[in-house]
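Comment on this:
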Amino acid sequence: MKTFSAILLAALLFASCQNSKKQGVNIDSVASPKGTEVFLPNWDSIARNYRFPEWFCDAKFGIFIHWGVYAVPAFGNEWYPRNMYRQDSREYRHHIETYGEQTKFGYKEFVPMFRAEKFDAGAWAKLFKDAGARYVVPVAEHHDGFSMYDSELNEWNSVKMGPKKDIVGLLKQAVEREGLVFGLSTHRAENAWFYNGGMTFPSDVQDTAITLYGQRLPQEAYNEAVAREWLARTRELIDKYQPELIWFDWTVNNPVLMPYFNKFLAYYYNNAVDWGKQVVVNTKQGYPANIQVWDVERGKSGKMMKFPWQTDTSIGKKSWCYIDGEENKTAEQIVHDLIDIVSKNGNLLLNIGPRADGAVTEEQQAVLLDIGKWLKVNGDAIYETRCWKKLGEGDAESTKGSFTDNTATLYTARDMRFTTKGNDFYAIVLNWDDAGVLVKSLDKNAIGDAKILNIQLLGSNEKIDWQQTDEGLKLSFPKTKPCDFAYSFKITFDRKVGEHLESEAVDEVMKHG
């Protein structure tokens, strides 16, 4: 087996190098095609030259899309292609009962069934804009190894097989027509070991000619062949689609991959200089927070962060991709999370899982449109805002940490979050109280000599009664609710009030690495 593995790895490394030569690409170079080398592949160089994009800091809300061959079985979750070969799993048993034995019906047999006949990039882009999103991040390739784009390095792609369409290319065109920022994610690094449980199945995963199944390495094991292939594939995405955001899953912090990831960062950032664009990278752990954005999966930071960060989560509670029997979060729960995240200097990247045919479920569409309806009223308190000296106040403790956000936090009108924009201060109250609310953080001490010029509740034309006291700022609610949940008071001062987010904010990203 060791001899076989060595031969396989050598062959794959040779194939990767040959593919790079066909492309005319030197993957060891970090210069852009124009020769730009502002960024070198080390953290000090990148930190000296990198600045977080204003568009990202302003956008606050984006859409993630997990859509691929794994939507065909629509069972378990997007890890179906791995779990269908693991004999102790529900997916393994379901697969045999539904499709037959894996030796006769492997994951590759789902590819012709993935036809995407109802996919409409324009309709998707309009839906995302109506939802209030400012950027869109489709999965260009998931762990399963099927590229949703026109790849010259991977024959298992959506142009040659399945839909026979460049899904990523079509989405880029449609998203940018709507004035949204286009990004993408690649999970290619995990493909190297994703199918290793299927190595006992002849004529399928065991057949190394089927490149869909990766290198069949042990769990999270990496080598130079994997790293070089990963870098070549990632550079292909940069060169073909010029994304303004690239999102990665957890294993890119592996010690073998890290030097190649640093080359990627330099290459991507150098290309962006040539494009005249501001770009951003998302990773989960292992990299400094001042050269890319820390991303928390299905959870949140527990405190305000010095550098921009992001939550990636899904409307669906069970899976990232479409599955039968999914349970979806409500728009109210997601909006509450968005408000909490933004008050801590973060963004929310919210995932949908379309069906295999390309249709977005009516329930997920409804959730998106309800979020958009709230943002049309309250967007002024979210977009282009920055943190105040504290995130908010209240009795309820919101969830924090990864994989914690399926359960909604129950808030009262005493719970509120703060954002700022110039001389405007926003107190977003997370529930309604006919008796009004007291913003304790805006007592006379905090306001000092600043004068309140105007107070309004976004979406309402009714006069807001208010009173400045030693205990805080008392605010009345209007008679009519302007929206269904979370209510934004816009308090305009004659100057900025209090100290804004600076050195007291805690940056924990390196602790996670």
